[in-house]
Design goal:
alpha/beta, 20% strand, three-stranded mixed β-sheet, 205 residues, 8 strands, single chain
Length: 205
């Protein structure tokens, strides 16, 4: 496991001066964001209980690392319908229409999650499945949320970025190490569950 400071030091080793530390931070965070945005990684999946409040469409209690919703279930375990088009959602569930009842759908507008119709009861146990939003590292003691076995990929990526900026023609070899790490991550972290191919029998009373 590597801290942000340790990653900086590794990127700078025999390549950048101390005066270039700010640039090293930028290069590392650029490659960090690159990795996080590249795929639907299984290590970014998480769940949290959130709150819907009577008379309000806005879901509260969203986790601080909330990025993209994967699913939302009500207190009875019923899934709500996801609207990727927030305009279609508002056309159907606009609070100004005055409709209220059991929420059956959700969407995201900016950083807010809305449910529709407007709930007529309050519940604190809606289950949200979501993808983490990785923030740029700032403090030296921060640790990347990618698996620790692949922290070295950020070193390769940061060094390749620094070498490109310095017009060092050998950057491509280091870039290949970065890309090879991503290929290995795809094999391991694109599936949260590996199916055996067996089917679960249907339940019949």
């Amino acid at each position: 496991m590597s801290t942000f400071l340790e990653l900086q030091d590794a990127v700078m080793l025999n390549l950048l001066d101390e005066s270039d530390r700010a640039n090293a931070k930028t290069y590392i965070n650029h490659r960090y964001g690159w990795i996080l945005a590249l795929e639907e990684w299984s290590f970014l999946n998480d769940t949290a209980n959130v709150t819907v409040t009577a008379g309000s469409q806005t879901v509260t209690g969203l986790p601080s690392d909330f990025g993209i919703p994967i699913g939302l279930w009500d207190s009875d375990g019923n899934p709500l319908k996801a609207y990727s088009d927030w305009r279609a959602f508002l056309s159907r569930y606009n609070a100004n229409l005055g409709d209220s009842g059991t929420s059956e759908a959700y969407t995201v507008i900016g950083s807010s999650m809305l449910v529709g119709p407007t709930p007529d009861t309050t519940a604190t146990d809606f289950l949200l499945a979501y993808e983490l939003e990785g923030a740029a590292m700032a403090a030296d003691n921060e640790v990347p949320i990618i698996p620790s076995l692949f922290h070295v990929a950020l070193i390769h990526g940061g060094r390749a970025e620094a070498m490109k900026m310095a017009h060092n023609q050998t950057w491509q070899a280091v870039e290949q190490d970065f890309l090879a790490s991503i290929d290995a991550m795809r094999r391991r972290y694109l599936a949260g569950v590996r199916s055996t191919g067996e089917q679960i029998p249907a339940y019949r009373p």
